[in-house]
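Table 4 source record.
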Amino acid sequence: MYKEKKVVVVLPAYNAAKTLEKTYREIPFNLVDDVILCDDHSRDNTAELARQLGIRHVLVHEKNQGYGGNQKTLYNKALEIGGDIIIMLHPDYQYTPKLIPSMVNIIGEELYPVVLGSRILGMGARKGGMPMYKYIANRFLTFTQNTLINYKLSEYHTGYRSFSRQVLETINFNQNSDDFVFDNEMLSQIVYAGFDIGEVTCPTKYFEEASSINFRRSMKYGLGVLRVSFNHFLQRLGLVNLQMYRTQSK
């Protein structure tokens, strides 16, 4: 708990058996009340290992629903069990759980309702081994997004994110894609709804066991990001009225 706010960590897992325990052991349980793992139809023993580690909520998709579909399951479950501060942490150990206290503090003190762990602040991405083509694409897409969305972030593509309950109850994330572009759709919704976003410098690691998408999937993701940004631009000008930007009914 943080000032009587329930802290929940959600783990979107796919073939994460090799790195799950190391990630889980670094979670600061003096702050974190609950952990939810969703196994997106892995080919390894991710779900079994999660249960052995003592993770209370282990959800399993009977068929692969994609990265976005995995997050939908996790956020809905986090809200169901009463989470007030929800942190998405990848169980592949690409992002360190040691930043959780900082992210919880920022949201718990009501400084920002959303906090991203940025790999770009402090040059963490390149130091951590981000491939040059991904770094260049990150910078190009982020510049374009900042321009079209009319916001200023160091990057929109980190997978390390934390949200207040109010944010997840407001934005219509269940309308989003089940693929990787889900992350960008969420940020577009958050900005459009008027929530402020904070960032903290986050070191990252690229290694064999860490999850990553190939060049073809990266190209598809990049085109999806541009589509989301242009849609946001048109929505902001009142030229379209898209379902994804409508707030959830309570």
